[in-house]
# Entry
Amino acid sequence: SKMMETEKKAKEKKIISEEVALGKLAALCSRAEQCTSYCRDKLTQWNIPMEAAERILAHLVREKYVDDERYALFFVKDKHFLSKWGKKKIELHLIRKKIPKAYIENALQEIPDEDYSSQLETLLSSKLKSIKGKNLYDLKAKLFRFAAGRGFEANLALKTIDKILNEKKEDLSCKMESSSDNEFEMYDITE
# Structure
């Protein structure tokens, strides 16, 4: 255990040259799309002096190994189409990665509105099958929290939830733990 700690400290203190750092980062960027903040963090982690780090980053950008605009486009496609994230969650993650606002807005515009709405509807319909609630209001709240957690806008989430609940009125009595005939009169789901 002590030997491992000593080896770890030795590795941490080991200083790599600017050329080696450039090669390592170029290899990382060749394998997967990376952003400049990731590269800057790696260089800091490797204890590369600031001037050298800026030269390395400039080289990577000039040679198109790193391109934040391209990164934003790939990130949006990946997170929307594969991970099924909403625009708000995607935007928040890109902001954390220090991607310029203009690149984020441009990349988010690549998501077709009809795909975006239908994806949320599909997600919520699927979620509705797996949840139960005390009443309609409870079901609506659970669906809303799910949509918000995925990063979808509140107004779109509420509109989509109302649409789904109105379409599935007949099937909802089995979704509620204590259903009654006037469940829909008690809670106006079209607000």
In short: The CA atoms of residues 98 and 125 lie 34 Å apart. The two ends are 62 Å apart (CA to CA). Residues 113-129 form the longest helix (17 residues). The chain has eleven helices and no strands.
